[in-house]
Amino acid sequence: MATKVFMEALSPTMEEGRLVKWLKNEGDAVKSGDLLAEVETDKAVMELSARGDGILRKRMIEEGTTAAVGSLVGIIASADEDIASLVGGATAAPTSAALTAPVVAAPAAAAPAVAAPAAPAPAAPSAPAGRVIASPLARRLAGDQGVDLGGLQGSGPGGRIVKRDIEAAMAGGAPKAQAPSTGRVASAGSRLPSPVSGEEYHDEPLTQIRKTIARRLAESIGPIPTFYLTAEFDLARAAEMRAAAAELGDAYKFSFNDLILKATATALSQHPEVNAHWLGDRIRYFNTVHLGMAVATDDGLIVPVIFNAEQKRMSEISAESKALAKKARERKLKPEEFTGSTFSVSNLGMMQIEQFTAIINPPEAGILAIGAIEDRVVVAPDGGFAIRKKLRVTMSCDHRVIDGAVGAKFLQTLRRLIENPLLLVF
Amino acid sequence: MAQFDVIYLGGGPAGYVGALRSAQLGHNVAVVEREGLGGTCVLWGCIPAKALLEAASIAQKVAKGKEFGVTAEKVTLDYGVAMKRSRAVSAQNSKGVEFLFKKNKITWLKGTGVLGPNKSVKVTGADGKAETHTAGKAVVIATGSRVKGLPQIGLELNKTTILSSDEALVLEKAPATMAVIGAGAVGCEFADVFHAFGTKVTLLEVMPRILPLEDEDCSAELAKAFKKRGITVVTGAKLGTVKAGKGGVTIPVEANGEKQEMTFDQVLVAAGRAPNIENIGLKEAGIQTTERGFIKVNDRLETTVKGVYAIGDVAGPPMLAHKGQREGHVVAEIIAGVHHHPVNYGNIPNATYCHPEVASIGLTEAQCKEKGLKYKVGKFPFSANGRARTSGETEGFVKVIKDEKFGEILGAHIIGAHATELIHEFAVARENEFTVEEIDLAIHAHPTLSEAIAEAVLDSMGKMLHA
Asked: Are B162 and B269 within 8 A, CB to CB?
């Protein structure tokens, strides 16, 4: 029985992948789980692994070729099996692989849903890259609602996925669905997470006033009605603390950025009303902080995540943020390392930007933009002048979740923590 | 005394189809039936009525022949002949079911059946002899329904001047004047037939429109067509107490704020049917009925007594032969313990065979509104359809109602020639959850009436080409 090798969705947002390098030659024996090829996704270089045993009989695309998710890139079969019908006329024509792939049947319907659950681990049994049998209506509903057809077991004739299966999945019952993956729900994009509350968060249905605020503000400004709060923090004590810590040895050194991350995580844990996701029909408030930190790479912006940041010590945050930034620049981040953040921080201080506004990463409700630390002349308490280290932060808030005063209160807490960093010890 | 696996009580569409499927699944099957096989449908309903409607259709076509260059002179209309042909067609179909029974080795127990304890049935033949048979697996009640009069206003069926469809089907000649009471499918069909055979027909309906269960647009279109042909249509009619005498039947009718007495040679009562739940031992067996007098069944068609099932008209509305047939099919599979798909009650087509024909499936526009659905309507008139013009049958339209966002086909309504055949494109589409887009993508042959479906669907997407 031949196994078709498909271009898989190796990251949640991946729509196509460039096959960088084949790791097996035609004629090589392969076992399920063996690495077949390196694939460059929108975020990183990932590995495509075999999902069946046999011999790699055919490479359908050449190195350097880009193929759509779900398209056929190779055939694994036994040595004597006739694979002519699978290969078809599409011998290594660079892009025709996508056309001949028998994966996505419906023309208009939700094509990307096929490959979905995205967990790159070869263990995930719910990601059969084969044909998903679903009615046209079910495909449309699933496409609209972000339901992953690959993870559903159909109740129609021959296991066909029909409307009632999508409705059941949306109602959260998903009785016949094989749970797509354990662990946290990927939050990239506002794909519908399960509506049940968990240990890590609780969902709150929208009140009427929240609904009205959301509707009116979204009408007024973009789909995410954003407003901005800017504050200037005094870093005198933070600088003292940093110098004192550095005197204790290299193990205690930390950067201002580390301090800001630590303080933000602590403040968020005290303000769950800001540490939240907008999910369309409800707001998800998280009980834990997964802090996204924007990193600039040569290819563009990526936001790796420090998970459970509020529980981590300064030294841990410092080490982790360094390691994540390095991995990001080397494009070695795994999808689970850059999805699932509850709130994000972006820092352009090192580039001498005084202050700026950052764009919210939905479904998150806010992001902090950190400017440069500068010495400023200020009015001293005695009426004279003084020179103080100052930092400007600007918080972008999704007004559907965070009202002005709520955001301001969060910044008050953050100010207290950054201006009195000793509090972080408590 | 004989032992079977399954005994069906009633040999109508529900019972005989169930029996065939049970036999196919390897069961030893008996069917208790006192009359001919095929039930009301074959003997007193669908089949003979359609034979008469075909006669009516020929009469209408002959009358129009001149425009086509076909002139028939000295045309005579003889209801008696049409009736005899319709009886012959019925008999032929009933014999067909008999043949299928023999082929599948199904035993026909001729007589009247009464439920006994432990899945037994006592069958009394025409000669008065009684015998008790038992079913090892199940007894299925499929006793159907019967016409009912309206005795509360003096319309007691008397077989001479106040008739049900049963008597109308065996009349020797068409009366000069007739009132048809009830403008559902049966009423509209008989109004059509008798009008074609020269009777002056008045169609009386209590509800504000004819075919009250169909989409309002279809009701209006049919009323227009009937009136144009000379059938008097009175809707929103309040009927007073009827007097039946030698000179005919007098009905006080109040409609549109006017009161008048109308007198007819004959009255056909086509208002409703009653389930046959009497004299079959339901109470003794402990089988419960609903408030409306149907046998109570669960979603597996099982009654309140284990091992006893009910299907067809007696198990609840809609009282349609094809609904009963499907239930028969499914109950046989449930009893045999093989995989079955439950009856999809939301996707049962309705068909009325008057001229123009009316057929529908799914929700009416009013029902969509009631449910607060966001929908779009697509409509295409047969007057703009090439094939309809060639046959001179340009009355009517195809109307499709789709979900605004996803294109789901919420309902479809067709009025026009061959509507009852055309509707099945929508039945298949809906069963498979095709959206309007899949219907559009399917290429429709030209010239056909089916193109009107494709055009209505295009209209629902704002892309209609031919009108």
From this structure: yes
Residue numbers in A near B433 (CB within 8 A): 135-138, 162-163
Measured between CB atoms, does A27 come within 8 Å of chain B? no
Distance of CA A355 to the CA centre of its chain: 26
DSSP A265-322: HHHHHH-TTTSEEE-SSEEEEESS--EEE-EEETTEEE--EETTGGGS-HHHHHHHHH
Residue B264 and residue B247 in contact, taking contact as beta carbons nearer than 8 Å: no
Choice among B27, B329, B446, B466 that is catalytic: B446
- The CA distance from B405 to the nearest CA of chain A, in Å, is 9
* Catalytic status, residue B466: no
Q: Do A136 and B433 touch (CB under 8 A)?
A: yes
| Chain A closest-CA separation from residue B403 CA (Å) | 11
Look up residue B161 and give its two tokens: 């001047």
Q: What is the 3-state secondary structure (H, E, C) of A181-199?
A: CCCCCCCCCCCCCCCCCEC
Which residue of A133, A140, A161, A170 to mutate against B (max B Cβ within 10 Å)? A140
Residue A27 reports pLDDT greater than 80: yes
Q: In what order do the strands lie in the sheet with A385-398?
A: A226-234, A385-398, A366-379, A343-347, A291-293, A305-306
pTM of the complete model? 0.60
Distance of residue B134 Cα from the nearest chain A Cα, in angstroms:
35
| Angle between the N-to-C axes of helices A404-419 and A256-270, in degrees from 0 to 180, rounded to the nearest 10 | 130
A71 within 8 A of A103, measured Cβ to Cβ: yes
- Which residue type does A290 have? H
B320 touches B184 (CB < 8 A):
no
Is A144 in Cβ contact with B433 (below 8 Å)? no
Q: Are the C-beta atoms of A71 and A6 separated by less than 8 Å? A: yes
What are B's interface residues with A at a Cβ cutoff of 8 A?
341, 405-408, 432-435, 437-438, 441
Q: Give the number of C-alpha atoms closer than 13 A to the C-alpha of residue B320, restricted to the C-beta side.
A: 13
H or E element in which residue B401 lies: strand B397-403
User: Which residues lie across from B138 on neighbouring strands?
Assistant: B6
* Chain A closest-CA separation from residue B344 CA (Å): 12
b/e per residue, B298-327, with b = 16+ CB within 10 A? eeebbbbbeebbbbbbbbbeebbbbbbbbb
A:51-70 residues touching chain B, CB 8 A cutoff: none
Q: What φ, ψ does residue A373 adopt, rounded to 5°? A: -90, 120
The rounded distance, in Å, linking the Cα atoms of A148 and B290 is: 42
Q: How far is CA B224 from CA B177, B187, B194, B355, in A?
A: 21, 16, 18, 12
Q: Per DSSP, what are the bridge partners of residue A197?
A: none
Spell out the per-residue pLDDT of chain B, length 467, in tens: 799 999 999 999 999 999 999 999 999 999 999 999 999 999 999 999 999 999 999 999 999 999 999 999 889 999 999 999 999 999 999 999 999 999 999 999 999 999 999 999 999 999 999 999 999 999 999 999 998 888 888 888 888 999 999 999 999 999 999 999 999 999 999 999 999 999 999 999 999 999 999 999 999 999 999 999 999 999 999 999 999 888 899 999 999 899 999 999 999 999 878 999 999 999 999 999 999 999 999 999 999 999 999 999 999 999 999 999 999 999 999 999 998 889 999 999 999 999 999 999 999 999 999 999 999 999 999 999 999 999 999 999 999 999 999 999 999 999 999 999 999 999 999 999 999 999 999 999 999 999 999 999 999 999 999 88
At residue B206's C-alpha, the angle toward residues B202 and B209, to 5°, is 80
Write the DSSP assignment of B215-243 as a string of letters.
-HHHHHHHHHHHHHHT-EEE-SPEE---E
Q: Please give the residue of chain B at the shortest CA–CA distance from A137.
A: B433
Exposure string of B205-230, with b = 16+ CB inside 10 Å and e = fewer, is bbeebbbeebbebbbebbbebbeeee
